[in-house]
Amino acid sequence: VFSFRKLWAFTGPGFLMSIAYLDPGNIESDLQSGAVAGFKLLWVLLSATVLGLLLQRLAARLGVVTGMHLAEVCHRQYPKVPRIILWLMVELAIIGSDMQEVIGSAIAFNLLSAGRIPLWGGVLITIIDTFFFLFLDKYVGLRKLEAFFGFLITIMALTFGYEYVTVKPDQGQLLKGMFVPMCQGCGSSQLQQAVGIVGAVIMPHNIYLHSALVKSRQINRSDKREVREANKYFFIEACVALFISFLINVFVVSVFAEAFYGQTNQEVMLCCSITASPVTHRGQGMPSLENLGSLRLNCGGGVVLGCYFGPAALYIWAIGILAAGQSSTMTGTYSGQFVMEGFLNLSWSRFARVILTRSIAITPTLLVAVFQDVEHLTGMNDFLNVLQSLQLPFALIPILTFTSLRPLMNDFTNGIGWKIAGGFVILGICLINMYFVVVYVSTLGHVALYILAGALCLAYLSFVAYLTWLCLITLGVSFLDCGSTVRIKQLVFHEEQLTSES
């Protein structure tokens, strides 16, 4: 029997998880998608969100059933060398996401101050805000912190919803783009943008995060009925949270699809030159008119909205970007702590962990903000979204492997449908990544860079193949078994016996 009271008790982890679907990297991907392809890639956004929901379901089930999060299971089941490599890959994804949060917050401060706060100043401010959230986490409590992030999601919904109502997108084209899986007249730029959407929406470290967040609720794991009930309510909560995040992403795509798709640089510059907008009275650090034709997180997302729809649109957009950057700050902090503690069996304070990861994220961002212009800073988001996409197999393969392992999951093991669908998802993502790498490498234009990229690709594909080999054996392809995976299964079974006996 469904109970709203029980749903409320389990509400929290899913909304914290959904923040990763609304970080500045996603907003950047959304506006680029609308500006480059109009409404034509909305079906990719919808598909990626549904796929993300199914993967988050597996992550939550792993945490609920086993009482361990994904990084802890990887530590127990993978040999030392692959485990360290896997940890480094996930850490790379976390640092990349942290850089996007820093960039988004810095740009928001720059826009809200009409350029009076330079980009490098905004980057430095983001150091302080992280410790503010750590203070809230320690002295206010998890439930109130979850409510605060729910408030930030509400701000994003209201601000980006305001832009949506102001622009009034074509609803017919919106529905067609969302439910008709085609992209007529699309070329390589639209295809690359579609890949970027997948990398921005499905965050690899978010799989690890969700499997850990569900452990915040007390569950009697010896009672199958209670475990099944927890799985149900966590899944319902995730559905609601990701539906809200999807609507917010649709707002952003639709605004830029309706207002800017097909616009030329000259048209944009002409509009800004004759409009009494903040760009005509910009402070130091605001982009120049010559750069406005490139619709990015700052230029297209802020100043051009101000040109077309007035100053209110600019500042409301900036508030939404600030909420996105601030809300995703703490999820990155949580992810980093869970991943480090799980993979290395090493307990660090959140304070020390934040000092390490945010220092790594801020250093290159600060250098670009000081010595380059805003275009280079916002352009980093494109590369970081690609980086997230390349890291996806290092979350998807382990989560499918371990949720398909009967000695670990018992009656909650993946069925044959989940195993087949998961296998095709991983294969599709790997093929997309290979395509994107080929496209990127072809633009390098130097023999030495070709050789370096080839070596890195070979190492990357070799490690993905190793993880896939273990996963296929777990899925039932027994002829690939050379003995190591059998020992892994026995180890899990032995640990469960010890737990039940104690």
UniProtKB/TrEMBL annotation:
The chain crosses the membrane at residues 34-55, 85-111, 117-136, 148-165, 194-213, 234-257, 303-324, 351-370, 390-408, 420-441, 447-480. It is a multi-pass membrane protein. Keywords: Ion transport, Iron, Iron transport, Lysosome, Membrane, Transmembrane, Transmembrane helix, Transport. The keyword Protein transport does not apply. It comes from the Eukaryota. It is found in: Late endosome membrane; Lysosome membrane. One of its GO terms (molecular function) is ferrous iron transmembrane transporter activity. Its main location: membrane. GO terms for cellular component: late endosome membrane; lysosomal membrane; plasma membrane. InterPro entries: NRAMP_fam (IPR001046). It holds the Pfam family Nramp. PANTHER family: NATURAL RESISTANCE-ASSOCIATED MACROPHAGE PROTEIN 2 (PTHR11706:SF40), SOLUTE CARRIER PROTEIN FAMILY 11 MEMBER (PTHR11706). Belongs to the NRAMP family. This is Solute carrier family 11 member 2. It comes from Latimeria chalumnae.
